[in-house]
Amino acid sequence: MKTLTRILMFVVVFFALAASAALAEESYDDLRKAALDDLRKIAEQGDALAQYELAVRYEQGSRGAAKDEAQATELYRKAAEGLPKRTDAEAQVAMGLMYEFGDAVYKDATKAAEWYRKAAEQGDAWGQCNLGWMYESGSGVDKDPAQAAAWYRKAAEQGYARGQCNLGWMYESGTGVAKDGAQAVEWYRKAAEQGNARGQRILGSVYFFGVGVTVDKKQGEEWWKKAAEQGDADAVKLLAENQPAQTTWKMMNATNTRIGSIEADGTVRNATNTRIGNFLPDGRVTNASNQRIGNIHSDGRVMNANNQRIGNIEPDGTVKNARNQRIGNILPDGRVMNDRNQRIGNAEGVRKEWAAAFFFYFFGDHYIEDLAKRR
User: Fold this and answer.
1) CA distance 205 to 188
2) Is 23 left (phi over 0), alpha (psi -120 to 50) or beta?
3) Contact (CB, 8 A) for 234 and 201
4) Which fold has domain 43-158?
5) Is 0.70 topped by the overall pTM?
6) Does 241 have pLDDT greater than 70?
7) Cα separation of 126 and 220, whole Å?
8) pLDDT of residue 81
9) What is the pLDDT of residues 84-117, one digit of tens each?
10) How far apart are CA 203 and CA 226, in angstroms?
11) Which of 125, 235, 293, 338 is close enough to 160 for a disulfide, judged by CB 3.0 to 4.6 Å?
12) Chain-wide mean pLDDT for the chain?
């Protein structure tokens, strides 16, 4: 009986809470709808701030408003034509973008430039930079590099990073201003130091290639890395393309002592840098006297000098002996493991078949083979 009572009490409480939640949700929806209606009424009275806020909601389809790009465009236009307040300048830029790219309106570069000018003349850095681009590219206005540089400067002096990068380029290329490498670097630095990825990437290139400054590859790479960490694809590409090719890979034992190395051309050296053999392009493995001591086949088979299979290197890095027993692994991070998954060395970066064969042939067959005998 007590159990039944508890169940009944639980059911009553559950439905009471569910009803309460439904009422709360309904109450919230009513409040949101009422707030949207109030905002709409204020906007209809010509309030530019309300028009701008309502336009944002229609553009995003957020806070109770269904997505409606046509409504958003009309409201941005009304807000943009209002009194010269900060929010109106942003609305003017938004209108310019819509005309420049043809979002919800027909594409019209001339109208885009007109809207950017309205915002720029109010001192809006975003509008100034966009107008500068129209003059630089000759889109919607007559091409005028000097005007472009002047508008970029107005934006840059307000700390607008894109304007700083663009002005830096004008100085670097001598477009619209006298060519001045030092000025270019200064403006790039301003953008980079406030965390702008494009500024960081460009400043990295300036230092790496020595454009207007002394070559400093280390500092260049550091700025590229900062930009790459923010997802700048060009910075990632620059890092990849300009990394020096590695020519030597160290082979380490379990105590991180260097026991040898493998060079990019396949030359194998011991701990004292004496050449002890080679991995040749055709798969042959030779000793210090250039005598063939084995082969590494493309299918992973490892052969001795008598063409007897002494092991295999699997695509996943598993190393097997002649009896197909797993005797170790070359892991993706370069660790060399024995059959008990204990690290017996490191061969980071080197081809896994060379790493495994190094232990098979040069560090001593017993180093890996004896592990199987102890099973």
Assistant:
1) 11
2) alpha
3) yes
4) 1.25.40
5) no
6) yes
7) 28
8) 63
9) 444 578 888 988 888 888 865 678 999 999 999 9
10) 11
11) 125
12) 81
Count Cα atoms within 13 angstroms, Cβ side, for 68: 14
Q: Are 120 and 150 in contact (CB under 8 A)?
A: no
pLDDT for the residue numbered 365: 41
Among 282, 278, 281, smallest CA distance to 293 is for 278
Structure tokens at 304: 């001795």
* CA separation for the pair 201, 185 (Å, rounded): 12
pLDDT digits (tens, 9 = 90+) for 261-293: 888 888 888 889 999 888 888 889 888 899 998
List of residues 6+ apart from 135 with CB closer than 8 A: 141, 143, 144, 145, 147, 148, 151
Boundaries of CATH 1.25.40.10 in the chain? 43-158, 162-244
**Averaged pLDDT for residues 305-329:** 87
Yes or no: is domain 162-244 CATH 1.10.8.420? no
* 8 Å CB contact between 223 and 192: yes
DSSP secondary structure letter of residue 62: -
Tokens of 231: 């997802």
DSSP of 64-79:
TPPP-HHHHHHHHHHH
Among candidates 175, 341, 354, which has minimal Cα distance to 267?
A: 354
Question: DSSP label at 362?
Answer: I
